[in-house]
From TrEMBL:
GO molecular function, one term: sequence-specific DNA binding
Any one biological process term the GO annotation gives: response to amino acid
Official protein name in the record: Glutamate uptake regulatory protein
Pfam families: AsnC_trans_reg, HTH_AsnC-type
Record's keyword terms, sorted: DNA-binding, Transcription, Transcription regulation
Gene3D superfamilies in the record: 3.30.70.920, Winged helix-like DNA-binding domain superfamily/Winged helix DNA-binding domain (1.10.10.10)
GO cellular component, one term: cytosol
The HTH asnC-type domain, residue ranges: 5-66
Length: 152
């Protein structure tokens, strides 16, 4: 559900997207509000699920996961039971970061990070438990841009 965001809300969100570790005092000062007014705005944004969480972003290569893979999946089973089983399988496969149901030639697109090709094979073996009809993978050779910042 979208809510109306005013200039101050957008400014707070920009600041938090750049650095979620900013203190309430720093945020309040940056948007020219009292701490309590700033806190109420943040609570409103969290309640409306505009802010879904606050995380620390890690460098995958620095933690032994240098290989990013995009996995295109096609299925010939387009029913609720299969979709629930697929959702369950991908939710428990370690390394899977994002999963999207797509329109067009591919039914699902999966983004995963792995240590190497044997680690990808482990992940692949877990994915095929979901009875997939066609799986293809593309391996990232170079990341040209990566951002978590939404344009506000």
């Amino acid at each position: 559900m979208a809510i109306d965001l005013d200039r101050v809300d957008r400014q707070l969100l920009r600041l938090l997207q750049a650095d979620a570790a900013l203190s309430l005092a720093d945020l309040a000062e940056a948007v020219n509000l009292s701490r309590s007014a700033c806190w109420r705005r943040l609570q409103k944004l969290e309640a409306a699920e505009v802010i879904r969480g606050r995380v620390t972003l890690l460098n995958p290569a620095a933690v032994g996961l240098p290989l990013t893979v995009f996995i295109s999946i096609r299925t010939n089973q387009h029913n609720q039971g299969w979709a629930e089983r697929f959702r369950e399988v991908v939710s428990r496969v370690e390394g899977v970061q994002e999963v999207y149901r797509m329109g067009g030639d591919v039914d699902y697109l999966v983004k995963a990070v792995v240590a190497d090709m044997p680690d990808y094979d482990r992940l692949y073996q877990q994915l095929i438990e979901a009875d997939l009809s066609d799986v293809s993978a593309g391996f990232v050779m170079e990341e040209l841009k990566h951002s978590t910042v939404l344009p506000l």
